[in-house]
């Protein structure tokens, strides 16, 4: 941390935990969580379901899956780009804001895989026809469709034809299906059916300025205090765009955001937090000790780049010895790693704390394991 551990560190953590809805008050549905966070990284779907549910007062995995099935929550490649959950109401403008940069970033791979403008238009039309009228198809089914038309059905060529169609607002996630073994599999549906009323193409002029303002407002009010560089890395946009977004947000949402300088950086956050980041921080959370099992792509981690060091804690920053990758938080600080496994109808939680847990910390861990079991609808066991 620049300048060593500052008086602001604990305050920053507690504000972020609350703003990110890992602390009360919590909304009633996963879709409300997503409205607050705008986009949630979701390349590991089973863990990403938990990211949304753990920010509610008790939503289950089935509730998240149903919201994805009915299209309220959509999963697609956007922002950096990687898989993200985005609310149906937000995906159109968010894709219009970022699609050009995503295509630009993929240009090298498009050239390598032979995807020029004509090929993309043809494959996009084939994919659109294949999933039209609610005929959602799995990745394997779409591979067969493209293969029959003479396009790649595997490897990078196939992957980038699919991604090009996603970024071009042709494909988006459909209703998930279960494999014969019970694993949940993503399908693809037609973007215009799942996100009705969206105008394809990049946003320009006032529309783009307002979208930048919306993004800045939603990011800093849900993840603040954070820096312009944090937001740029999270969104995949330029720092210039984020600064324009902050200016636009001031017009769209007067007095909603404020800024403060500490630890040699300028931070932006929701104005109602009104915290003095240079004052002596609270000694502990009201409900400490508190254990949170979050996925390694959780927004509490991935929502920051320049100021991620406020995560703090005693565990090494990356897991060791091929151990679990997902993150254990102790009072908001990195304290270990975890993963789930399933055997005989029981969820086994492999949790590895960096330091031996006290009796109180062990009780907090057991409470979090029980909460995870309620989310899954099955018994959990710490191993």
Overview features:
383 residues; alpha+beta; 5-stranded mixed beta sheet; 3-stranded antiparallel beta sheet; 14 helices
Compute the average pLDDT: 93
Structural class: alpha+beta
Give the ordered list of helices and strands. Answer: HHEHHEEHHEHHEEEEHHHHEEEHEEEHE
Any low-confidence stretches, pLDDT <50, length ≥5?
none
The beta-strand count equals: 15
* Percent of residues in helices: 40-55%
Write down the Rg.
Answer: 21 Å
Distance between the termini: 34 Å
**What about the largest sheet?**
5 strands, mixed
Give a quick summary of the entry:
Helices cover 44% and strands 19% of the residues.
Structure overview:
By secondary structure, the protein is an alpha+beta fold. The chain contains 14 helices and 15 strands. It has a five-stranded mixed beta sheet. Helix 3 packs across helix 4, helix 5 (88-112) packs antiparallel against helix 8 (155-167) and helix 6 packs across helix 8 (155-167). The radius of gyration is 21 Å and the shape is globular. The two termini are 34 Å apart.
Fold blueprint:
Layout: H1 9-19, H2 30-37, E1 39-41, H3 45-53, H4 61-69, E2 73-78, E3 82-87, H5 88-112, H6 117-131, E4 137-138, H7 139-148, H8 155-167, E5 171-173, E6 177-178, E7 184-185, E8 187-190, H9 191-194, H10 205-223, H11 228-235, H12 239-252, E9 257-262, E10 265-270, E11 291-294, H13 299-302, E12 326-330, E13 333-343, E14 346-353, H14 359-376, E15 380-382
Parallel strand pairs: 14-15
Antiparallel strand pairs: 1-3, 2-3, 4-8, 5-8, 6-7, 9-10, 11-12, 12-13, 13-14
């Amino acid at each position: 941390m620049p300048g060593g551990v500052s008086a602001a560190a604990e305050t920053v953590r507690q504000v972020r935990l609350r703003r990110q809805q890992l602390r009360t008050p919590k909304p009633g549905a996963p879709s409300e969580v997503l409205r607050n966070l705008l986009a949630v990284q979701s390349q590991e779907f089973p863990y990403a379901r938990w990211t949304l549910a753990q920010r509610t007062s008790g939503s289950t995995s089935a509730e998240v899956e149903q919201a994805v099935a009915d299209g309220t929550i959509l999963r697609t490649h956007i922002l950096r780009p990687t898989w993200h959950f985005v609310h149906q109401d937000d995906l159109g403008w968010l894709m219009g804001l970022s699609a050009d940069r995503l295509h630009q970033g993929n240009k090298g791979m498009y050239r390598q895989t032979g995807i020029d403008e004509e090929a993309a238009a043809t494959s996009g039309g084939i994919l659109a026809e294949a999933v039209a009228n609610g005929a959602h198809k799995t990745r394997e089914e779409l591979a067969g469709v493209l293969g029959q038309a003479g396009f790649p059905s595997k490897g990078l060529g196939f992957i980038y034809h699919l991604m090009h169609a996603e970024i071009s607002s042709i494909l988006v996630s459909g209703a998930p299906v279960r494999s014969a073994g019970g694993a949940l599999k993503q399908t693809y549906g037609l973007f215009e059916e799942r996100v009705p009323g969206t105008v394809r193409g990049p946003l320009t002029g006032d529309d783009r300025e307002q979208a930048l303002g919306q993004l800045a407002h939603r990011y800093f009010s849900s993840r603040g205090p954070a820096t312009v560089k944090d937001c740029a890395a999270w969104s995949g946009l330029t720092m210039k765009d984020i600064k324009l977004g902050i200016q636009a947000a001031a017009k769209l949402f007067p007095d909603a955001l404020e800024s403060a300088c500490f630890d040699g950086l300028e931070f932006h956050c929701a104005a109602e937090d009104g915290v003095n980041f240079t004052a002596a921080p609270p000694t502990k959370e009201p409900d400490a000790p508190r254990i949170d099992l979050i996925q390694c792509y959780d927004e509490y981690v991935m929502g920051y780049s320049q100021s991620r060091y406020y995560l703090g804690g005693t565990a090494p920053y990356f897991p060791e010895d091929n151990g679990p990758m997902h993150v254990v938080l102790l009072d908001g600080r990195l304290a270990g790693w975890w993963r789930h496994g399933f055997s005989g109808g029981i969820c086994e939680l492999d949790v590895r704390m960096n330091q031996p847990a006290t009796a109180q910390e062990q009780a907090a861990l057991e409470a979090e394991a029980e909460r995870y079991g309620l989310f899954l609808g099955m018994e959990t066991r710490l191993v």
